[in-house]
Amino acid sequence: MISLADWQRQFQQGVLYRQPPTALAGTATVSAGRRFEVYAGAYRLRLTEALKANYPVLHQALGDEQFDRLALAYLEAHPSVSSNIRWFGDRLDDFVRLHDELLSHPALADLIRLEWALCCAFDAPDRKILDGTHVAQIPAGSWPELVFELHPSVHLITLHWGVETLWHTTKAAHEEQQEPVPAPHLTLVWRQQLHTHFRSLDNSEATLLLELSQGGCFARICELAADLSHDEATPLAVGLLQRWLQDQLLTGCRFPAEGVSFP
Amino acid sequence: MINGYGLGLRTDHYAEFVEQKPQLDWLEIISENYLVPGGKPLHFLDRIRADYPMVMHGVSLSIGSVDPLDFVYLKQIKSLAQRVEPGWISDHLCWTGVDHTNLHDLLPLPYTEETLRHLTRRISRVQEFLGRRILLENVSSYVLCAQDEMSEWEFVSELAARADCFLLLDVNNVYVSARNHGFNPHDYIDALPGNRVRQIHLAGHQDNGELVIDTHDHPIRDEVYELYAHTLRKLGPIPTMIERDDHIPPLQELLAELEQVRQTAAAAIGLARKMEVA
After folding, report:
1. Do B65 and A8 touch (CB under 8 A)?
2. Which of A164, A216, B168, B190 is 20 to 30 A from A77 (CA-CA)?
3. CB pair distance less than 8 Å for B143 and A29
4. Which of B143, B151, B159, B213 is the best substitution to test chain A (most A C-beta atoms within 10 A)?
5. Are the Cβ atoms of B32 and A30 closer than 8 angstroms?
6. Across the interface, do B107 and A39 touch by the CB < 8 Å criterion?
7. In this complex, is the C-beta atom of B109 within 8 Å of any C-beta atom belonging to chain A?
8. Secondary structure letter of residue A2 according to DSSP
9. Which helix (H) or strand (E) holds A240?
10. Is A38's CB within 8 Å of B142's CB?
11. pLDDT over 70 for what percent of chain B?
12. pLDDT tens-digit profile of A162-189?
């Protein structure tokens, strides 16, 4: 008599390794093996579809055959351990570092990082947004100590290739694809209201936003702005701050010394 | 109070539910789609919930697994239920994985005394934790355990009584399993405890001849309408919905299909009443 635990372990091993367990009942018309294959096949199909949902542009860039090969290799290495299939593919970035032969171009590893960041931004926690009216009420003397808080959807990711163009042309299904060029840079991914966005950052914005994301106060951001552009430090820092407010990247600010948060 | 006829809420139809508010008695949500921190899913959930009663339907409870119950998941379900205030919470009579792996499938259980005892304990713990009785849905299956000790309908009926839970009857799944295992689907329906069946799912399937596959990506087939009518004649009116999971058609098409469900139900219940009077 097979126990419930043994039934489940044999069944799961059977699905993972495509070997039907022994305790199955077949019929004269349909063998137990053919019946079991419904589960083994559906498992691979379902998880491949889940990966496509999280990496739609990578799927388009690779095409069905190559994407399926990547998905099955990933599934074999990293079966899902989450109760929610929405998170399947969270380790694809690490996986392709060890298996770059599964990608037709090294820039696609960057595309994976970009798509996963977009995926995480999509349903990141909601927060109230800091707007210009709030900022205008901050006393002038408090500005140097001010530390800004970023929206939880904000991701700053380091990319090595200019994959943003590839993302746009692939998504628009342009027939002529330009080959990505090596271009190390920082890309900002975030959600504004319900819509996800990304843009590559120039050196100035990358430096200042990275500092802000690490808890640097406004005085420190201005110091860095001065290093980048001695004569135009204030317009640079203030201009970027206005852009971040417009993009709804900021959710609040605080004065650490006084333990006060705003708004 | 959930009554009448509903649909499964799908992302393709968010805008129409928000903007046009089509006439519909209730909606069923897939709980896992809203177990996320924020963004579009929860935004639309709240907006649509303001206009429609809802029930919650999960796919990850894995009530039959020999792994420990996942209380992190159950806390999320409880929290979502506080937000949605659903008519009820349901999941499936199955397991989805073991040893902390999740195959994300609704896998068959052996119909044995051991499984009954295991499920009864776990359902009681879940119902105690959620503070309510849950509905469990029969899944379609393609294999049976060679050492089954009873039929699926005997198993389901006994379980509902022992665990004091409700049932979500998927009529399409009964049909699919009946074809695949060669039993009469009427035997299944006729054996069910009518007072415990609180909801019905209807869906389409793919008929491959020797094996019928529960795809939930086609309109409801005539043979499932027939079995649905039989079910209502036996059990009386039960809240019913169409569960379409793939190849999602325009909402108008699903609403038209739901009208056909409503007419089938009205004819079946009318006939049953006439027979009672006679």
Report:
1. yes
2. A164
3. no
4. B143
5. no
6. yes
7. yes
8. -
9. helix A233-246
10. yes
11. 99
12. 999 889 888 887 767 778 899 999 999 9
Residue B43 has its nearest CB partner, among A1, A121, A194, at A194
Nearest to A84 among B32, B38, B62 (CB): B32
Residues of B in contact with A191 (CB under 8 A): 39
Q: Which fold has domain B5-277?
A: TIM Barrel (3.20.20)
**Domain boundaries, given as residue ranges, for chain B:** 5-277
pLDDT tens sequence for chain B (278 residues): 899 999 999 999 999 999 999 999 999 999 999 999 999 999 999 999 999 999 999 999 999 999 999 999 999 999 999 999 999 999 999 999 999 999 999 999 999 999 999 999 999 999 999 999 999 999 999 999 889 999 999 999 999 999 999 999 999 999 999 999 999 999 999 999 999 999 999 999 999 888 999 988 899 999 999 999 999 999 999 999 999 988 999 999 999 999 999 999 999 988 767 777 76
Q: Hey, what domains does chain A have and what are their CATH numbers?
A: 1-104 (no CATH), 124-263 (3.90.930.50)
Instruction: Report the alpha-carbon distance of residue A125 to residue A113 in Å, rounded.
Output: 20
Neighbouring C-alpha atoms within 13 Å toward the C-beta of B44: 20
Asked if A47 contacts A75 with a C-beta cutoff of 8 angstroms, the reply is yes
Which stretches of chain A score pLDDT less than 70? 175, 257-260, 262
HEC string of chain B equals CCCCEEEECCHHHHHHHHHCCCCCCEEEEEHHHHCCCCCHHHHHHHHHHCCCCEEEECCCCCCCCCCCCCHHHHHHHHHHHHHHCCCCEEEECCECCCCCCCCCCCECCCCCHHHHHHHHHHHHHHHHHHCCCCEEECCCCCCEECCCCCCHHHHHHHHHHHHCCEEEEEHHHHHHHHHHHCCCHHHHHHHCCHHHEEEEEECCCEECCCCEECCCCCCCCHHHHHHHHHHHHHHCCCCEEECCCCCCCCHHHHHHHHHHHHHHHHHHHHHHHHHHHC
Is the ipTM higher than 0.90? The answer is: yes
Residue B100 near chain A (CB below 8 Å): yes
Most B-contacting residue of A51, A78, A84 (CB-CB within 10 A), to test interface: A84
My answer on whether omega of the bond before A263 falls inside 30° of 0, hence cis, is yes
Beta carbons within 8 Å of B241's beta carbon, 6+ residues apart? B5, B6, B7, B8, B26, B28, B199, B200, B201, B202, B258
Taking only the tens place, the pLDDT of each residue in B192-209 is 999 999 999 999 999 988
